[in-house]
Structure formats: structure tokens, C-alpha cells
């Protein structure tokens, strides 16, 4: 099955042994999307790495950026300004909803619930509109940078997020009306793709799959970062260990993310969005100009007209980048698919010595055989959909 089958979530190949319609053996073949991102990052400076890692799990780009930048910041030993932390947290939770909506939409399409697909992408568009207004791009944002974020919230962004918050609860409730009570939807998901806590732990499975097996393991609660410990939200779980539970967990998580975004908006205090250290803060002064996003006119005037030293510094910072003290760190974040961890090694230079990523889709795909063998070929589709893998992250 695959690697160009419409229900393999990207270029994933499944080698299935069948007896009639029953799957006796399932193997996963990956690597068709291989981008070499981890290796490429070693040939770019620390800031340029952001534009590479954001393209791994392309449905959750902001999580890749956050994990990578938090690892770089840990090596640098710097603290990101509070406003930048709050903005990061807010855009990541909006991104979580957008990602879950795609998981729901593609799963719906594969199981024949076509309206689930069109509605899922419709609501995701609302999320992407907000992210585009804040970051300038719909996806692959490169908005979170070492030391903070690329630029402050543009005028009107807070109002746009509030409008989005007002619309989304009703839209999400529509999925329960459309799908949750639907007998066909229930029969396609219940008791399909079974994997209990023991199986999850043995395979290193995290995210909604693990929580749908009843274990409330969420890094935002267990190992908090960006101040998550100060936010009021629940970790949804289910006890069904199947595709049905994973669907319900993701639905509930979207509601929790809306709560977090609302709290983040209320906490936004005026202040800098990038560290003060001019040796790290690059690009120096971004603004939304006539040409889209570039350095502010004041900064261009400063480096081109008044200070030769500033021009030299700007040139060195942009071409070479800053140095990061030698060492290695591992920083995990809770992506929509589970534990996304960055193991970053520096040899003291202006480029990473090594960036290795623990991508949750890659680890979670191991569950395919355990979920599928002994079931029907139609249930393989539902099982893969419930894993919600993104091949960009798997083949990075």
C-alpha cells in the first residue's frame, strides 16, 4: 500500500501480508521524503537553522522552531523576555489546533466522511489566517528565533485572535454533531488500532495515543516550559486504547488549547520580544515595511548612514552568526503528536556541530504493526489515521 496511496498521510509505504481481507503482517517503509534537514543544519549558522527545522513536521512548524531555539538558548544560557515567551506559547497552541484539525480532516477523508475533511480544512484556514497575520506566513514560519521572536505582534493581531476565539468553540462543537454521534464513524473507530499503556511505553509512544490509553502524560504538565505551569488547563485522557479514544482526546485537546490562548492574551504585557544582547539578536530590528518583512528604516539608516561599526557588526552577525559555547543539551516540547525533542551539540562555533531530533511521528509509526495485525485491511487505514503521522518529521 503506497507510497502514493491517498490514505498513507504522505509518502509512506506499507507492506501488508493478507489472508483474504485480514492483515497477518504489517511493515512500514519510510524514507521517500528524505530532506536531510538534520545534516543541512550543520552547514548553516544558528539562526538560519530555524528555517530548516520548521519544515520537518510541517503541520506543527512552530513546535520545531520552539524546541530548536530553546535548545540553542539553553546552550547560550540566556533567558527570553516574558512577552516573547507568551507570544511563543500562544502561537504554538493555535498551531496545535490547526494540526489536530488536519489530523481529523485527513482521517475523515480516508474513512469516507468527506464533510469532516472539508470542515476540518475550513477551520484550519481560520487558524492559519491568524498565524499569517502574526508571522507573515501560513506555515514554515521561521518566526521563533534564538533569543525571542522575529517581530512583535502587528497592530490588530490581538483583536484578530479574540475574534478567532469567539468563533472556534461553536465550530468545534459542530464536529461532535457531524461525527461523534455518527454510527458509521463510531463503528470505523471503536476497537480499531488497539494499543494499551504497556504497548505504548514499550514502543516509546507519546502524545494523544498514550493519553487515549489512559496515561495523562503531557510535557506541558510533567516538565513545564515557557511558563505552562502557571496556566489553567486539563490533560484530556480516554480509557479505550483505540482510534475512537484518540479522536476524542484530540477533540478535547483543541478546547483546552483555546483556554490556553485566551489566558495568554490576557497576560500579554508590553516589553521587548528579543534579548537585549546585540551579539545574538538577529536580524537586528525587524518591522513590517512596504517590502513585506525587513529591517526597520531606522536600523537601515543607522547602519548605512551613521555608524561604520554598526554596519560591520550587522554584516558579521548576518553572514557568520553568533558563537554558541561548546556543550550539548536535550530539550523536549509537547507537540501535537507527542514528545518532540531536540538534541543539540555545539563545538563553540557559529554553526551547530549536530542537531538530532526525536520526532514523535517517527517513534509513533512503530505502533503500526501492533495496531494493524489481526485486523481488516480497512482498519489499517483507521489505525494509521489515528497515529496522525507527518512524513516530513519522519524522514527529516
UniProtKB/TrEMBL annotation:
Domain NADH-quinone oxidoreductase subunit D: 111-396
Keywords: Cell membrane, Membrane, NAD, Quinone, Translocase, Transport
Coiled coil: none
Subcellular location: Cell membrane
Reaction catalyzed: a quinone + NADH + 5 H(+)(in) = a quinol + NAD(+) + 4 H(+)(out)
EC number: 7.1.1.-
Keyword Ribosomal protein: no
Pfam families: Complex1_49kDa (PF00346)
PROSITE patterns, per the entry: COMPLEX1_49K
Membrane topology term: Peripheral membrane protein
Function in brief: NDH-1 shuttles electrons from NADH, via FMN and iron-sulfur (Fe-S) centers, to quinones in the respiratory chain. The immediate electron acceptor for the enzyme in this species is believed to be a menaquinone. Couples the redox reaction to proton translocation (for every two electrons transferred, four hydrogen ions are translocated across the cytoplasmic membrane), and thus conserves the redox energy in a proton gradient.
Similarity annotation: Belongs to the complex I 49 kDa subunit family.
Assembly behavior: NDH-1 is composed of 14 different subunits. Subunits NuoB, C, D, E, F, and G constitute the peripheral sector of the complex.
Protein name per Swiss-Prot or TrEMBL: NADH-quinone oxidoreductase subunit D
Organism (species): Geodermatophilus maliterrae
Amino acid at each position: 500500500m503506497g507510497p502514493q496511496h491517498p490514505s498513507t498521510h504522505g509518502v509512506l509505504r506499507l507492506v501488508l501480508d493478507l489472508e483474504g481481507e485480514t492483515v497477518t503482517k504489517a511493515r512500514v517503509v519510510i524514507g521517500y521524503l528524505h530532506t536531510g534537514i538534520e545534516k543541512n543544519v550543520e552547514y548553516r549558522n544558528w539562526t538560519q537553522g530555524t528555517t530548516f527545522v520548521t519544515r520537518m513536521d510541517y503541520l506543527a512548524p512552530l513546535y520545531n522552531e520552539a524546541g530548536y531555539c530553546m535548545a540553542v538558548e539553553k546552550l547560550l544560557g540566556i533567558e527570553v523576555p516574558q512577552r516573547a515567551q507568551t507570544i511563543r506559547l500562544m502561537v504554538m497552541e493555535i498551531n496545535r489546533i490547526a494540526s489536530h484539525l488536519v489530523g481529523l480532516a485527513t482521517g475523515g477523508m480516508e474513512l469516507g466522511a468527506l464533510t469532516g475533511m472539508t470542515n476540518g480544512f475550513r477551520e484550519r484556514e481560520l487558524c492559519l489566517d491568524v498565524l499569517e497575520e502574526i508571522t507573515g506566513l501560513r506555515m514554515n514560519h521561521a518566526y521563533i528565533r534564538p533569543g525571542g521572536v522575529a517581530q512583535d505582534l502587528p497592530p490588530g493581531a490581538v483583536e484578530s485572535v479574540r475574534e478567532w476565539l469567539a468563533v472556534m468553540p461553536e465550530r468545534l462543537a459542530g464536529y461532535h454533531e457531524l461525527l461523534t454521534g455518527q454510527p458509521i464513524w463510531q463503528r470505523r473507530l471503536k476497537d480499531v488500532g488497539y494499543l494499551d499503556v504497556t504497548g505504548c511505553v514499550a514502543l516509546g509512544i507519546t502524545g494523544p495515543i498514550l493519553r487515549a490509553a489512559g496515561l495523562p502524560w503531557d510535557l506541558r504538565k510533567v516538565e513545564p516550559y515557557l511558563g505552562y505551569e502557571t496556566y489553567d488547563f486539563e490533560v484530556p485522557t480516554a480509557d479505550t486504547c483505540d482510534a475512537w479514544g484518540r479522536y476524542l482526546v484530540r477533540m478535547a485537546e483543541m478546547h483546552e488549547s483555546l483556554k490556553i490562548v485566551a489566558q495568554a492574551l490576557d497576560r500579554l504585557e508590553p516589553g521587548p520580544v528579543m534579548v537585549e544582547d546585540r551579539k545574538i539578536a538577529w536580524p537586528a530590528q525587524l518591522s513590517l515595511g512596504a517590502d513585506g518583512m525587513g529591517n526597520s528604516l531606522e536600523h537601515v539608516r543607522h547602519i548605512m548612514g551613521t555608524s561604520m561599526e554598526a554596519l560591520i557588526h550587522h554584516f558579521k552577525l548576518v553572514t557568520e552568526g553568533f558563537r554558541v559555547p561548546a556543550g550539548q543539551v536535550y530539550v523536549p516540547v509537547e507537540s501535537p503528536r507527542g514528545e518532540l525533542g531536540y538534541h543539540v551539540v555545539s563545538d563553540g562555533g557559529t554553526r551547530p556541530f549536530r542537531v538530532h531530533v526525536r520526532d514523535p511521528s517517527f517513534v509513533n509509526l512503530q505502533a503500526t504493526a501492533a495496531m494493524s495485525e489481526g485486523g481488516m485491511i480497512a482498519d489499517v487505514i483507521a489505525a494509521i489515521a489515528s497515529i496522525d503521522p507527518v512524513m516530513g518529521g519522519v524522514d527529516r
